[in-house]
Specification:
It holds the Pfam family Sulfotransfer_3. The protein has 386 residues and is mostly helical. It has helices at 18-35, 46-56, 65-85, 108-115, 126-130, 145-160, 164-167, 179-182, 198-205, 210-223, 242-248, 261-279, 285-307, 320-325, 327-338, 344-356, 376-383; strands spanning 98-101, 121-123, 230-234, 253-258, 315-319.
């Protein structure tokens, strides 16, 4: 039986049952069989995963929960193996990454994708987040086993949640969220955002995220081992974890997106409804609404405190409505903030991308606050006017 390693002290900590430990070992074994690898690196991930599994197996509801865990374990195995194969990653330095964050549904994805058009950036391609390794030449990607693995994962995800593309399209060769790497430590919003698990959720939110961000940095050093371009990163979850992000990337330039919270929080709940109901057809959507208000309300409070500190000069706030009204104007403001130059040819490529990717490309996204037990007044009491 593997040893469960303690992390930083937590509130509402709880013991891991033998059933959870047995499930953990079984999923580790399956991941090892599928990858042919055996080294998970540090065992620090085992306690958070044990806590997560302890809650997950108490209620027989998660239709494909174990495959989500197994996929994360496979990615961790591959990452550790590639670190050993490429020890030079330790000598790399990530200089002044440009980081996009904000409450989900505030325009982080569109901003991320349009900035990624600029070849002066390197980003976290989805397939490399699923199967981390030094980024090979792009003309070889389709022949990579990791690329084919990511294609299969994405096809399954889209089949399981058919409404996903309308609210968050994912493509294996395009840039994706840092969440796809952060989940390998199992101290992340990834899991409680797709199925309610209040005990693990409370424990997770009390943890210091800095160790996971250090692992993220090492993963980026590996992926960009032969690439000296500036990193462009995005993850809504960095909003609320800027203390950890600045501890690991002290010279980061951060762009925080904003939108009327009544729209963003309602939209967040609607996006999560598909995975929540896939995991549990009987999920209480009012609890989903309450959880998202609490989680992102706390994140806003933490971020506001960072903004008032000396780190505030490294943060640029962008309004969703301003980006939609003048996206290139916002891009120019971001480049000024980050000390970058926008090439005229790149600007034209960005304009082309924007024309080809309107916000309603995959259909309209509609929702009602009342479906999630929310009201406009209740949201504004937590978030203000936006």
């Amino acid at each position: 039986m593997a040893t469960i390693v303690d992390r930083e002290p937590a509130i509402e900590d709880f013991a891991v049952t033998q059933d959870a430990l047995d499930t953990l070992e079984r999923l580790k074994s399956r991941a090892m069989q599928r990858t042919g690898l055996t080294d998970f690196g540090s065992t620090d991930f085992e306690k958070p995963l044990g806590l997560l599994l302890d809650e997950a197996i108490r209620v027989p509801r998660r239709l494909d929960w174990e495959s989500e865990i197994e996929t994360s374990l496979m990615g961790r195995l591959v990452l550790v193996d590639e670190w050993k194969r490429n020890p030079g990653y330790k000598d790399r330095t990530i200089v002044a990454p440009l980081v996009i964050c904000g409450i989900p549904r505030t325009g982080t994805t569109a901003l991320h994708k349009v900035l990624s058009v600029d070849p002066q950036f390197q980003g976290l391609n989805l397939w490399l987040a699923s199967w981390p390794k030094p980024r090979p030449p792009q003309d070889r990607w389709v022949d990579e086993p990791g690329y084919q693995h990511a294609v299969a994962l994405l096809e399954k995800r889209n089949a399981d949640t058919p409404g996903l593309r309308a609210v968050h399209e994912m493509l294996v060769d395009e840039v994706e969220e840092c969440l796809e790497i952060l989940r390998y430590d199992f101290v992340t919003n990834r899991f409680p955002s797709i199925t309610l698990m209040p005990r693990y959720d409370g424990w997770m939110q009390a943890q210091d995220q800095t160790p996971s961000y250090r692992n993220l940095a090492d993963a980026l050093k590996l992926i960009g081992l032969h690439d000296d371009r500036r990193w462009l990163l995005k993850n809504p979850g960095h909003f609320g974890n800027l203390d950890a992000l600045f501890a690991v990337f002290p010279d980061a330039r951060v762009v925080i997106t904003h939108r009327d919270p009544v729209k963003s929080i309602g939209s967040v709940c609607s996006v999560l409804q598909n995975p929540q109901q896939f995991m549990d057809p009987n999920v209480d959507l009012h609890k989903v609404g309450a959880r998202e208000v609490q989680f992102w309300g706390d994140a806003k409070a933490k971020t506001d405190a960072i903004r008032e500190s000396e780190r505030g000069a490294q943060i640029l706030d962008v309004q969703h409505k301003d980006f939609h009204a003048d996206p290139i104007g916002i891009v120019r403001a971001i480049y000024d903030h980050a000390g970058l130059v926008l090439n005229p040819d790149v600007e034209q490529d960005m304009r082309t991308w924007l024309a080809q990717n309107p916000s309603d490309k995959h259909g309209q996204h509609t929702y009602k606050l009342s479906d999630y037990g929310l009201t406009e007044e209740g949201i504004r009491a937590v978030f203000g006017e936006g």
